[in-house]
Structure formats: C-alpha cells, structure tokens
Amino acid sequence: MRFLSARDDSVLVELDDLDETLALIDSLTERPIPGVVEVVPGARTLLLAYRPRETGPAVIAAEVRARPLPGRAPGSGGFLEIPVRYDGDDLEEVARLLGVSVAEVVRRHTGSEYVVGFTGFAPGFGYLTGGHPGLDVPRRATPRTRIPAGSVALAGSFCGVYPRESPGGWQLIGTTDRAMWDLGRDPPALLRPGVRVRFVDVTGSTGGPDAVPPDPLLAAPIAGAPDPVPAGPTAGPPDAGPLGATPRGLTVLAPGVLTLVEDLGRPGLAGMGVSSSGALDPVAFRAANRLVGNEGGEAVLEVTLGRLRLVARGQHVLAVVGAAVPLSVRRAGGSERRVPFGLPFALQDGEELVLGTPRSGIRDYVAVRGGIDLPPVLGSRSADVLAGLGPAPLSAGDLLPVGNHRPALAVDLAWVPPQSGNGLTLDVVLGPRTDWFSAEAVDSLVGQEWIVSSRSNRVGVRLEGEALRRVIGAELPSEGTVEGALQVPADGQPVLFLAYHPVTGGYPVIGAVASHDVRRAAQLAPGASVRFRVIAPFQEY
Predict the structure, then answer these.
(1) Are 217 and 141 in contact (CB under 8 A)?
(2) How far apart are CA 471 and CA 466, in angstroms?
(3) How confident is the model over 255-269, as pLDDT tens digits?
(4) Quick check: 321 pLDDT over 50?
C-alpha cells in the first residue's frame, strides 16, 4: 500500500487492485476509523477525508496497514442488459486506436460481460470492469465540457454510461435510453457494485419507455448565457395577479446569466457519486445569512455575473454579499433608490431588486430573512448542477417561497468586504500524483501566472498557461478527487475543481488548493489571473 497526500485534510490510499480496494471499503464500513469523515472508492485507491484535529495521515496509514483484507465475491449483485445505439462521436477514433474496424469494436463490446466494480464521478455512474481485453483505449487529451446523458464510453479498461449531461474525457462509442439515475426508483442507481452487465446492439432503433428525459443545462461555460432550462420551483408569468392573491415570496423577473438556489450542500455522499455541492463561496454565503438574521445554513440565491431581477411578494429583509455589484430598488411608481451592498435592507411588497454586473469577482449571494423555503433533496436545498439534484436554475416567472423568520436570531451587522477574483495567490498542497510530473512542471505550476479560461464553469476553473509536462504517460485508473484539486489532462492545462466537481477522475492531480483557500477560487472570473504557492510538499506516509 501507498498513502499519498491529497490535501491538508485528505489522504489517498493506493492498493494493488480493485479486489483489495473493495475489501478495504468493506472493512472501513464495518469498523470506521475515528476522524475519517468520507471514503471515496476508485479503481485501486480510496480517498479518505478526515478532520485534522482528530486524526492524520500517519495514524490512518498505521490503522489501515494493520487490517486484514479478505476480499469480496465478484458479480454477486444480479444481472441486466443495456441496449445501445453505437453512434458515439469517438467510435471511429476508438477503432483507429485499436487498429480494428468499427464493427469489430461493437462485436467486442457486446460480446463480453462486465461487472460494476464501484460507483463515483456522478450519481448513477458505475465503473464497469471486465469486458473484452482488446477495448483498452486512452482518455481524450482534452476533456469535453459537455457529454450527453446516456452516452456509453470507454477509458482505459473501464466502460461507463454517463447518467446526465456532464463534462468528461472518456471516448464515446454509443448511447442508451436506459436511465442510470432516478430518484423515483429504489434504489436510484441502476448500476450498483457487483451487478453484471451485458450491452445489446440496437443501432437504428428509437427511444422507448425508459428513454432519458432531456436534461437542463448543467455545465455551461460561465462566460455565456445558458440554454433554455426547465422552470424552477414554482412557475408562472412574472405578473402573477394581484399581490394579495400571490403567496409570500420572491418572483423572478430575470434570472441573469445563471442563478441557483444554494445552501451548504450534501457532504458525506461522495461514495455514491454525489459531490458536496452547495455554495461555491461559503464565506460569503454565511455572511449574507448572518446579515438578515438567518441561521447559517438557510438557502440563498447564488448569482453568477449579476443581472438578477426580483420582485417582492410581501415585505422582506435581504442582503447581498460576494462580488462587488451595484444594487438598486425600483418602486411600483417607477422611482428608484440605491441599497447598500454588504448590509441588510428592506424590500417592500411590489418593489423590484436589480443586481447590476459585478465590478470584480463573479458570484453574489442574495439572502432573504427566513431563507428560500423549498423541499430538501437528499438533505439539502442546493441545486447540484452536475448531478441534477435539487431545484433547476431559475427562470423568469419562478416564485420562490420564503420561510418564516425566527425573531430570536440576532442580525450581525459586521462589514463584509466584497470578494475579488483577480490577482489571487492560492496556497497549494502537492499530491497525490506530483510524481507523475517533471520537476520543471512543478516549478511552472508555481512560477507562472495562470489565466482563467472562458470555458470555466461551476464544475471547475480551467486555466491557461505554459503546459505542465508529465513524465508518466500511462492511463491513470479513476480515483477520488477533492475540491480544489488541480487535475491535469494530457494537454497540460490544469482544471481547478470547485464544489461541483466529479467525485472521481482519471487525470493525474498535481496538487490541491488548501482547504482554507478553496472558497477564494469561487470568485475567479474568465480572464482573471491566479498564482499558486506551495505550502506543503508531496508526501508519502
């Protein structure tokens, strides 16, 4: 075993193979290690997140090394068939890489049985092992920002089906209409560890009753406007009738580029492919709630690039914190008044709040006294844009219900400075795959100024600069990743993962932004510059 630093509160355990990995999962489930708060399985690794005040990498390593790992019986979870139309964008490229015909790729894929080894990346994504040994292909040099739901893909010796539209770097060979993840199904995931799978060629057929429904835009570049998305919590025209007949809340007149309902997310569910998600800038999130007298975790609105317009249904107290943005209130008669940024203000029945465009930074948090009162999903009201959990991105006409305020809560009027997203220097812990890169690459990581790409989104900040050169060119079996991870695809341009990142990935991580600095990355806008400073070297325990 190897124990590699993954962040200042995480360690990556590298094992011999998948069987040993599954055995360690069973052991940690039966006898958890005190202080370890999350376990994320990979192909031959486990990512262990821990509380630094309770334990550390050396203690975890000693505990794990002392455990017997008897193994788990493979293929013990049942059998299912998945119909596939072999129409993937990379099918011909896969055939070229393997030196065979497209028909032979299809024959190999349908002629072998797979077993779900583990789940991760996103809810419902199963890593399928086994299959034909002649289907081992590398990931794409540059990952796509969007892969359609139902895409059947290959990477290394693994096969997988994308449950929802998401970014990814696997080679696409086909599509299926079977829903991989459905909260209305028990259990929601179709593919679970131990299930045996065989793919069936139905090329030329049309979708059936199990067809995957259209997905909303979940990972659009933050520099552009989103595509049309389903209506949010409660749909209706902006003018929903007399104010007295309308439920108390906030009506969306214009959602801006992207506005989401967020709280502190869903921590602890990474093992089933659900990222922590939640507000990308938790400091600004908590400050906005304090200013209106809410408890720390009440749901708020996270606004990307401003231009949000809301009208009050009833009287409310609001506050806006995050990127510096001009705020104004329009009265019913047409007059306008300015309201303070970073301080609470009243919004009377029928008044309209208008957010301008941030002068620096990218995200703002709009809190309302009582919080946005929507039904929680898996314990959170957050919109998880990668997993498709929680409310959809807001649309014009949505009515956001507001909860009842608890008057005992005190308002904290401490000044909260605006968050800037340019010229940042972020602390970095090297690992877990620093040794996959040259010494020059590590020097280049910290020695240059990186520019934020316009292709960045809530999943990750894509960086542009001098490429980081690898000294190990092999395919990395998928393994758990942390928020703040600097994952480096084959093109050498790092991606800085935010709270909505896939819980597993197959590109090596050269380092990770330290836990105390991750939230600052949430304000990095396209065109902004950022530098990195190493505060802890790569370590093996």
Answers:
(1) no
(2) 16
(3) 999 999 999 999 888
(4) yes
Q: Do domains 2-65 and 79-201 have the same CATH topology?
A: no
Of 44-58, 67-81, 314-328, 357-371, the poorest mean pLDDT is in 67-81
Fold of the 2-65 domain: Gyrase A; domain 2 (3.30.1360)
Measured CA distances, 337 to 17, 249, 252, 345, 440 (Å): 64, 21, 19, 11, 55
User: Which of 185, 77, 203 has the alpha carbon at shortest distance from 128?
Assistant: 77
pLDDT digits (tens, 9 = 90+) for 356-413: 999 889 999 999 999 999 999 999 999 987 778 899 999 999 999 999 866 556 677 7
DSSP secondary structure string for all residues of 426-471: EEEEE-SSGGGB-HHHHHHHHHS-EEE-TT--SSEEEEESSPPPBS
DSSP code at position 273: T
Q: What residues pair up with 198 in beta bridges, in sequence order?
A: 81
CA atoms of 21 and 42, how far apart (whole Å):
8
- The CATH class that applies to domain 424-536 reads mainly beta
Q: Is the pLDDT confidence value at 232 over 90?
A: no
Q: How far apart are CA 357 and CA 193, in angstroms?
A: 46
The average pLDDT across 272-283 equals 89
Q: Say which residue, 520 or 230, is predicted with more confidence.
A: 520
Listed by start position, the domains of the chain span 2-65, 79-201, 243-401, 424-536
| Structural tokens at position 237 | 């025209």
Please name the residue that has the structure tokens 């190990």: 472
**Domain 79-201 CATH class label:** mainly beta
Q: Considering the entire predicted model, what is its pTM?
A: 0.81
DSSP for 206-268, written as a single string = ---TTPPPPPPP-S--TTSPPPP----SS---SS-S-GGGSPSEEEEEE--SEEEEE-S--TT
Beta bridge mates, 110:
none
